[in-house]
Amino acid sequence: TGYYRRLGGFTDNVDTGTEDVNRSNLYGGRLAIRYAPTDDLTIDLSGIYQDIENFGVAAQALAPGTFMPLFDEYDYSSFDDFGGEIKYRIANANIEYRFDIGTLTASGSYANYKTFFNSDGTNPYIAAGRGFLGAPAGPGLPSVAEALFGVPVDTLLPADSNARFFASPNMDKWTGEVRFAFDRVGPLELLVGAFYTNEDNIY
């Protein structure tokens, strides 16, 4: 199976002029295969992928000290649209074999998760940077910017500077399981097995 879905946006970025900036595209697919060479043996293979593309954020700019829109409804201002992307990949294999006394199952999976996000970091980071660089390097000393770089803070980091924040959490995960389920004997049920997992996360 496969699918594609488009989500229309409803917010506008008045700075870049982009309309419906928070629109998204979603698409993906799933594949499943079963092989059963005998009545006792079945092999199932499956895979899933999904991509989500987002072209901007949903935001509303408010007039300072009010809950009234600063611009029109569903409008905001930012120097970029700040889209993002998410990718999922999952693969699985499952094997079952039927014995006279129970069922043996072996299963393994791999999952991969990749993301890319960026956002407007101007408000916290530029303000903090200017505050640090503009502060005196010590009693009777010039500012940190002048002491370290030989220029005033307005030259090194102007008040109208912009900052972008990047985040990209990613994951790789392997799992495996082997178990034997004995047939029920009266009130007794017995299951034995082992499980393995290995996960790497990078932020």
Distance between the termini: 32 Å
Over all CA atoms, what is the radius of gyration? Answer: 28 Å
Number of contiguous helices? 3
Q: Average pLDDT value?
A: 93
The SSE order reads EEEEEEEHHHEEE
Strand runs, count: 10
Overview of this structure, please?
With 203 residues, this protein is mostly beta strands. The protein is built from 3 helices and 10 strands, in the order E-E-E-E-E-E-E-H-H-H-E-E-E. The protein has helices at residues 122-134, 144-149, 153-156; strands at residues 2-7, 12-13, 24-35, 41-54, 75-76, 84-98, 102-120, 164-167, 170-182, 191-202. Strands 1, 3, 4, 6, 7, 8, 9 and 10 form an 8-stranded antiparallel sheet that branches.
Summarize the structure.
By secondary structure, the protein is mostly beta strands. 11% of the residues lie in helices and 49% in strands.
Please describe the structure with a list of short key phrases separated by commas or semicolons:
about 200 residues; 8-stranded antiparallel beta sheet; mainly beta; single chain; elongated; 10 strands; about 10% helix; 3 helices; two-stranded parallel sheet
Topology overview:
Blueprint: E1 2-7, E2 12-13, E3 24-35, E4 41-54, E5 75-76, E6 84-98, E7 102-120, H1 122-134, H2 144-149, H3 153-156, E8 164-167, E9 170-182, E10 191-202
Parallel strand pairs: 2-5
Antiparallel strand pairs: 1-3, 3-4, 4-6, 6-7, 7-8, 7-9, 9-10
